[in-house]
Amino acid sequence: MGKGLGSGKERGGASRRAAAALVALLAGVSPIAITTPAAAQAQSEAVEFDIPAQPLGSALVAYARQAGVQLVMTEEAVGTTWANPVRGVFERQEALSILLRGTGYRARFENGAVRLSRVAQTGERAEEGSTPDYEDDAFAQAPDSILLRGEERQLPNTEEDIVVVGTKIRGAYPASSPVEIYSAEDIAQSGAVTTEQFIQRLPQNVGTRTEYASTATTTNSFNREAVSSIDLRGLGVGTTLTLLNGRRIAPANFGQTVDVSIIPVGAIERVEVLTDGASALYGSDAIGGVVNFVLRDDFDGAETRVSYGGVTSGDLRRGNISQTVGREWGNGNGLLALDYASASSLSASDRDYADTSIFGQADLTPTTQNQTALGSISQDLTADLRLGGLLALAMRDVKNVALLNALGAPTAYRSETFHTFADLGLDADLAENLSASVSLTYSANNVDSSYGAGAVIDTEYSSFDLTAVLNGVLFATPAGSARYAFGASYQEEEYLGTTTANGVTPSGRTLGRTTSAAFAELLLPLIGESQDAPLAHRLEFSVAARYTSYEDASEPRADQEFGDRVSPKIGLLWSPFETLNLRGTYGESFRAPSLSQMDPSGRLFTLQQGAAVGGVSSTVVALGGPADELDAETAETYTIGFDYRPNWLSGFELSGTYFSIDYSDRVAAPSTTAARANPSAWPELIHRPVSADELEEIISSLPNTFNNTGVSLADPEAAAAALFARLPNLWIVDSQTRNLSVSTLEGIDISLQHRAETPIGELTLGVDFTKIFEFVEKASENSPTVSVVDTVGRPADLRGRLRVMLGRDNWWTSLNANYVDGYDNPLAFASAGGPHEVDSWTTLDWTSAVDLQFEGWGRTRLSLTIQNVFDRDPPFVSRGSTLQFSPAFDPANANPLGRVVALSITQAW
Q1: pTM of the predicted model, to two decimals?
Q2: Where are the domains of the chain?
Q3: What is the DSSP track for 527-553?
Q4: Which CATH architecture group holds 179-593+631-666+740-908?
């Protein structure tokens, strides 16, 4: 089954394994790895490799797949040796030498074959790119080696069927888009022990929705479920598309955003991050980018993982246990994975800096229990037809003591989430250069929550998606094959919410929508590597477009139609030299508001006496919930970047990407803090009522959730008259969700990495950071432009990570320094000390792991992680309009955990 954005399953892979197994058995060996043979390919051809450090047997499997060579070997030939990582563009022989360096094995290409043998001295290291000499007679007689030759072990010649992030095309990739791929080893080496922690370490991501003090900021005010979501670029929830094996996941948090904490970190094979607008390929929610979690599925054996840890100051403890079992048979494979994780809470009283006079005994992190079960199966029906399926069930129980409003006491909040994800796919080879795939995906989230004195909020969100894609070669050129993908999709969404709490979204209305789409993508190579053109080692052009049409399916109808739109994207890659790629993209996005954003039952108002407007104590009528009319969002995204891998410095990589996003008609609740200070400049948001009739209309049509004016609202006409008599200091503050005029964002991503062999092992140095030059918003055409970068709850202008790793044989150790730049807090309340500067924050994470092998016991990995080694507190942030329920830090840019120590054991049986 294809993984869409992730990795498509190699069609016929199981049948090829069976064929190779038979050949190997006839030869008297036990095969452990087979990939597509390419004996005729020149070993000098450069190939891009991404092979993490791992046991040699599995590393050779990965090498063979990426290099396009056949590989069959005996288990005794590699034993328990640990291979070196290989990342970058190398010739096949050079990559193989790097992978085997220090392992006690050497290999070379010879007459269309690969020779693998054990060297005399196990610790001897081959020079990078060298071709070792072998004694042919000794090699032929060695009992622990085997000659790999394409013509002798002929298998069906089928290309590997890969779909890479940022494209629908199989077997090729438009390298014009900025993409990062993180393996399971990368996640482990980052110092993260959960999926959400790894996501929070990405410099491009902002913690708009996290479990940390989940009601502390206005951006987190509806996150009492303590979800952890992805918000690339900090554009807001719902602007980053989160996928599982290339398929959409039902959002939690009132149908607003996907909760990544339901994905067990041990089930992840890799994470693919596209930091570019991709609505032309995937439709809505791909304005800021796409993150795809690819689960493990091709696994033969059993693996048990156990981890336990906690903070060194406080009561928070976290434990996890998982079991994975996989089996391969002649023409298919299956996998079952079970995971249980739990964490106790971190109370505000455990942190001296937390403002307990305001935040009380509330939780800085919740008590959680996560249970996940997933199973996958893949089966060859014929040589050209493959069926695959995935079923995942997740339950999440959250207990969160949080504040409900600025004047309330901490209140216990409880939520139980049940998530279902099911995917069924069929892949078919129709001809030599033509394939098709069809997938059916169902995803649903049911959330039952309660708080306070019996108040209940229940929400249900479900989506059904049918997608069909045709892949093929349009024509051949001297530069290579022009490849295309063409397809169509149909999606049904439904959102239902019920509540016993007056005025709290939702209130029992079923909202629905159907989305029809057709899409096409073309990858056209203009100049190829083999053409040896001056200043044009490689030149390729890509273009994609998606037609999307929305229809309302609500009961009763919401009468909000968003029409249809074509979203295009183009990309260009130019490599003037083999070592340098220059790339650029332009794309447009079209996104309808989420169903919960459209729910009119969320409209409400509050009455507050003594609120400041224009520096004067006033009575404020504040409106909340969605405005009457919401329109679709649109965006234009530009990227310009480069990738540099010099051949004079092996293992060095430098990449940079400039990004610019013009985000129009963004659906969000405007910040009214600046407007309250200068109401005349914000007439659309803050104004005086023109008549008592306007007040009467508000009182009679909207629920009231807070009133300290002393005016009874039982009789709307009398109440309106009493309030209207308070003019001129009676204001209407309109904080309803609406289409903001524009958000403009621009910045740059930089990534630098260098790998070098040292006498004590392979040393890796890396730096990743994101610098935001500008991020401004306007609430309307007539409103002032406001900068939101470097403000509480929004992105800091500079975030980065420095990593150092040393690995050799069966161990590695890594250090990761995480940095968030300082910024101002101009909106702090005068009673809390007034505006002040928020310090920068640097923390250090250390992780070390060792692999042990015991006879008859399998492989055991022990790892120890210490997060925030020096136990640095988050920077102090004073209470203000964007940090109303103050834990004294900004949850979007820091966390309260302090030093965390975790020990884990992984046992492969």
Answers
A1: 0.80
A2: 13-149, 179-593+631-666+740-908
A3: E-GGG-BTTBSEEEEEEEEEEEEEEE-
A4: Beta Barrel (2.40)
